[in-house]
Amino acid sequence: MAPNMEVFKIALSIMAQGMVGIFVVIAIISLIVALMGWIGANTGKKDDKKTGA
Questions:
Q1: Quick one: CA torsion of 23, 28, 32, 38, rounded to 10 degrees?
Q2: How many independent structural domains does the chain possess?
Q3: Is the residue at 17 inside a domain?
Q4: In this structure, is residue 18 part of a structural domain?
Q5: Each residue's pLDDT tens digit, 6-49
Q6: Helix, strand or coil for residue 41?
Q7: Is the pLDDT of residue 2 over 80?
């Protein structure tokens, strides 16, 4: 029974590392997208006369 628990713990640690990696990648992509949006909003022409419906 003990060897099976060792294998299970190793599998859980590998899965946890994979999940942490996925969340880190998602966080990095979200920060890049937010930064691009902030840069896009703060640069370019300041158009006060925006056409609206």
A1: 80
A2: 1
A3: yes
A4: yes
A5: 999 999 999 999 999 999 999 999 999 999 999 888 887 666 66
A6: helix
A7: no
DSSP string across 22-36 = HHHHHHHHHHHHHHH
Residue span of the structural domain in which 20 resides: 10-35
Task: Please count the residues of the chain.
Answer: 53
- Using a cut of 0.70, tell me whether the model's pTM lies above it: no
Question: Using 50, 70 and 90 to split pLDDT, how confident is the model at 1?
Answer: low
Nearest Cα residue to 11 out of 1, 25, 22, 3: 3
> 22 — alpha (psi -120 to 50), left (phi > 0) or beta?
alpha
Find the angle CA(25)-CA(36)-CA(26) to the nearest 5 degrees: 15
